[in-house]
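Cross-check.
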Amino acid sequence: MTDAEREKELQREIRGVSKSIRSLLSGVKYTIDYYQREYKWTTKQVSELLQDLTNRFLDDHEDENERKAVAGYGQYFLGSIVISAKNGQKFIIDGQQRLTTLTLLLIYLDNLQSDREDKVSIKEMIFSEKYGEKSFNLDVEERAAAMEAIFNQEDYEINGQSESVKNIIARYKDIESFFDPDIKDETLPYFIDWLIDNVHLVEITAYSDNDAYMIFETMNDRGLSLTPTDMLKGYLLANIIDEEKRDEAANIWKAQSHELKEISPEEVSDFLKAWLRSQYAQSIRERKKNAKPRDFDRLGTEFHRWVRDHKDIVQEKENIKVGIGLTTSDDFYTFIKNDFTFYGQQYLILRKASSEYLPGLEDVFHIAQLGLTLQYPVILAPLTPDDDKSTIQLKIQAVSTFLEIVLARRLWNWHSINYSTMQYTLFLIMREIRRKSLEDLIPILVRRLDDQDDFDNFDRFSLHKKNRYMIHRLLARMTDTIERGSGQPSHYLEYINVKGDPKNPYEVEHIWANHPERHTDEFNHPFDFSEYRNRIGGLLLLPKKFNASYNDCTYQEKYNHYYGQNLLAQSLSPQCYAHNPGFLSFIKQSGLPFKPHEQFKKADLDERQALYIALAKYTWNPDRLRKLLEG
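Predicted model, tokenized:
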């Protein structure tokens, strides 16, 4: 056979090989063609993958096991990827979403175990080094800088970046939020061993693009398995005996599903999880190792089976009723006509409010900006189909206001707000406020806030390596509070750059430039200066162009320029207090300790820190909940 014949034969060859993550990624380079779609995985897909991996691992893991016992743990199949091998390179035709997410997970695990003596060697699955230059095994040029920042645990500016880069940064934050805290201690090396050797994918390799795309299209055109949503719909409709009512219920399901799918293809499933959790979950996996999934967990992964298993109301211990109460054909019909419709419509309102600044529902938007993912079942929990429109609005306002106060307080006190940290607490709140009247709801929420750390519990709140985004959001809210309170229009959406304008976004700026040598009269060591400089009282939210122009200047050099910026920055200048009746009225009404600062020494920063604490308490005041009852 000639070389040409061998080459032609090779081009027609197709190979499928099951590979562990270790064998798939160790020292192997993958890339994608420029015309391939962006990295599009969402929070939902990442959270579900982590939950599936965690549950499968914990099914076999016991604390007393030796490390080598992991070899006998069950395997997990993550699907297939399709590769076109050409010109000595591996091009991903199908599977870049999974490979990108796996790479992000490996980077997270490598960072998580960085200080451990029992660390597992996984760097060779993330990058390889040649001639002193490091490159990622998932080798896509436009993503390299973002991946490098993640690997080095550094901030990365996403304004003006591609959709893929923005999603990569966001999904890494999701992994930080959703990764199970039970696995972060002595269990971590076991989990990493299991992940890289017991999780498998089938790599299907073709040696021409035509064959690769033929495989891809065949795999995606041969029909899809029924989803949990399909199975739940079929189960509910099958139990409606009256044909006319069954057709009506089917049309209701179809119409509402169409509305939900206009948001995203997975939105029907997301709604069903949020609704069923909000109204029926009575238990959640215990916070101990190897605990089994309960109502809340199962409704997140197999809600169709949970509904079937709990269609009747059953009495559990402590007189807690578990189940839906679907006994007769009319129960199933009403469940779709009334409940499915009512909660679906409220969910649609919440989803819209999370992406648009809707009057009266601003806090739903604020919560979404802080990255919470469990707000929907909590906000839906107190609602009932018998509530009138006004009551529904007030309940949504109450719960979303409560959640925003909780998140702001936790961030201020350096507590995590990630999924794994918040899940148990929010479940308990959700269960406690379920179907409560407004008169009962608000005292519960106020009492819950009374048990939390307030803003003045931590008077040294400051910027650090990982909270710049959150401080940006907090400063945006605080600045907006002052301006609206002074009768000015809201600029909150500009401050958070909701439109993604790369030209002049707002940034967190230090009032003191990073020059400790200018402050040796008050600080003996640069570390002490840096700690003070990063306190929130020494920060402002200013346009990027301003930062670029004045960032290195002394306070006296940029002091007068602050007056041309937002009201929080203007408040440093005496001019702000001379001809500004709206602002002066706000100071009188709020009692906030505003004052100008013609110099900015250590004592000035202390005063400013006290002002910001008072402003935070004013912005996120529990009295907002009490006023809803009065209204």
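Residues 329-355 form the longest helix (27 residues). The mean pLDDT is 88. Passed to J.P. for a second look.
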